[in-house]
Amino acid sequence: MAKRKRKKNEWLDWVKAIVIAFIIAFVVRKFLFTPIIVDGPSMMPTLHDRDQLIVNKFNYHFETPDRFDIVVFHATKKKDFIKRVIGLPGEHVAVKDNVLYINGKKIEEPFLEEKEGDMQSYRVLTENFTLEELPGNYKKIPKNYVLVLGDNRSNSVDSRILGLISLDQIVGKTSLLYWPLNRVQLMGE
């Protein structure tokens, strides 16, 4: 009888441990971190198609995105995109002759430089635009919105097509590229 009771208790302990593990995993994935796989070349040369990253869903509950953060956002109800924050609330953004201007001031984009070992050239070929020419016809980026662009500007569906992105659409900031192993790196460091 005692042996049977011990087996039953052991079985219940295992069930409890598994249930607790699933609850913890659910909470971590829902509120703290989630994986994402890059789909397409729009973030080349920084991110490659099929790169796997961890998205920090937690930090934007306490702070707003910074310029050049790489963020994941809900582009549609079924599709998340990964792009780089370029323009912040209250700013005017323009690109002329492949040069980014924020409020009329030239801004360097060092992440667009070719990296040693890149197989292809991803020259920045951004057609000239101003904020007023984008969907919404804004003169300045409104409060609670950002302008995002892909690093591979000639092959990216971003704010030039989608318009400005609401902070409510942002899932989180990329924090770790973990696959493939030869490209493991902390993002934004």
Walk me through this protein's architecture.
There is one protein chain. Helices cover 19% and strands 29% of the residues. Strands 1, 2, 3, 4, 9, 10, 11 and 12 form an 8-stranded antiparallel beta sheet that branches. The mean pLDDT is 82. A hairpin with a 5-residue loop joins strand 3 and strand 4. It contains 2 helices and 12 strands; from the N terminus they run αβββββββββαβββ. The chain has one domain: Ribbon (Umud Fragment, subunit A). With 189 residues, the chain is α+β, with helices and mostly antiparallel strands.
Layout: helices, strands, pairs:
Blueprint: H1 2-32, E1 33-37, E2 52-56, E3 70-74, E4 80-87, E5 93-96, E6 99-102, E7 105-107, E8 129-130, E9 145-149, H2 159-162, E10 165-166, E11 170-179, E12 185-186
Antiparallel strand pairs: 1-2, 2-11, 3-4, 3-11, 4-9, 5-6, 5-8, 6-7, 9-10, 11-12
